[in-house]
Amino acid sequence: MVWLMSGRKADWPSTDPDGLAVRFTLKDPRPRPDEYMPVLEGAGLRLEPLREEHLEALCGIGLDPDISRFMPNKLTTREQMAGYIRDALAARASLSAIPFVTVLAPESQEPQVVGTTRFMSIDSRNRRMEIGATWIGKPWQRTRVNTEAKYLMLQFKTDSLNERSCAALLRIGAGLEGMLRERPVQ
């Protein structure tokens, strides 16, 4: 499914937090090399670049079979999680993905890794990318975590069978634009 954020142009900021213009470019829509390691911050939630050092934290919350139910590769062992991280980092190195670890960071508590998500299938020729490979530890499912992470990423694509992700998108005003039945040959 393809999701678009509803709202008027006036609802969107004209600059980012660093004062740089927010716009689309016809020259090169692929993120710049320095944009493959961004930190996206919201109200008590942060998306940080995924690193190998996150393995233990992700294993501590993510080896439940229900969490990877909608994913092509199951994450039920430490070795599978390590492979998942290696694949994500390889995709970043090839400039085809921007993987994040989702960190809950309330002011009064120690920051805690609660899941992961990424921009993926970055296709500059066709000016598109997706959000995917999103999973959140069970204690944080059906909370604001997924909603805020999706909002921070400002690009929406999700599996139609993943009702939790669909509900998170609806809560922030996204609307269903259509179903993609075929994808370009990769």
Describe this structure in a few short sentences:
This protein is of the alpha+beta class. The chain has helices at residues 55-62, 78-93, 144-153, 163-171; strands spanning 2-5, 40-41, 45-49, 97-104, 112-123, 128-136, 156-157, 174-178.
What does this structure look like?
The protein has about 190 residues and is an alpha+beta fold. The chain has a single domain, classed as Aminopeptidase. About 25% of the residues lie in helices and about 25% in strands. It contains 4 helices and 8 strands, in the order E-E-E-H-H-E-E-E-H-E-H-E. Strand 4 and strand 5 form a beta hairpin. Helix 1 packs across helix 2 and helix 3 crosses helix 4. It starts with a strand and ends in an 8-residue tail after the last strand.
In which range does the helix fraction lie?
Answer: 10-25%
CATH class: Alpha Beta
Largest sheet data:
5 strands, antiparallel
* Radius of gyration computed on alpha carbons: 16 Å
Number of domains: 1
CATH architecture: 3-Layer(aba) Sandwich
**Count the helices. How many?**
4
Structural class: alpha+beta
* Unreliably modeled segments: 1-12, 22-27, 155-159
**Span of the ends, CA to CA:** 18 Å
Q: For this structure, what is the CATH homologous superfamily?
A: Gcn5-related N-acetyltransferase (GNAT)
Write the element-wise H/E pattern from the N-terminal end onward. EEEHHEEEHEHE
Given the C-alpha coordinates, what overall shape results? globular
